[in-house]
Amino acid sequence: MSQAETVLRVEQITKKFGDLVANDAISFSLGKGKVLSLLGENGAGKTTLMNIIFGHYTADGGHIEVFGKQLDARSPAEAIGLGVGMVHQHFTLGDNLTVLENIILGTESFRSHRQDIKGALAKLDQLSEEFGLAINPNALVKDLTVGEKQRVEILKALFRGARILILDEPTAVLTPQESEQLFDTLRDMVSRGLSVIFISHKLNEVMSIADDIAVLRHGKLVAAFPIEDASKELIAEKMVGEAIDPPKREPLAIGATVLGLSDISVQDEEGVSLLKNVSLDVHRHEIIGMAGVSGNGQKPLSDLISGTLSPQNGTFTLAGEKIEKFDPHLMVEKGVGRVPEDRHHEGVVGDFSVEENLVLENYRSPQFSTRGWLKASAIKEHANKLIRMFDIRGAAPETTVRGLSGGNMQKVILARILENEPDLILANQPTRGLDVGAATFVHEQLLKARSRGAGILLISEDLEELMAVSDRIVVMYHGQLSNPMQVEDVSVQQLGLLMSGEGFASPESEESAHVA
Amino acid sequence: MEFFEMFLAVGFWSATIRMATPLIFGTLGELICERAGILNLGIEGIMTTGAMVAWMWVYQGGGLWEAVFVAAFFGMLFGYLHSIFSVYMGLSQHVTGIGITLLSTSLSYYAFRMLLPGVTTPPKITPFEEWPVPLLSDIPVIGEALFNQSPLTYVAFLSVLAVAYILYRTPLGLAVRMVGENPMAVEVQGIDVYKLRTGAVMVGSAFMAVGGAFFTISVFDAFYFDMINGRGWICVALVIFASWKPSKALFGALLFAAFDAIQIRVQQASVSFIPYQFYLMMPYIFSILALIIMSRKAAYPKALLVPFRRGQR
Question: Is domain B10-294 classified as CATH 1.10.3470?
Answer without folding.
Answer: yes
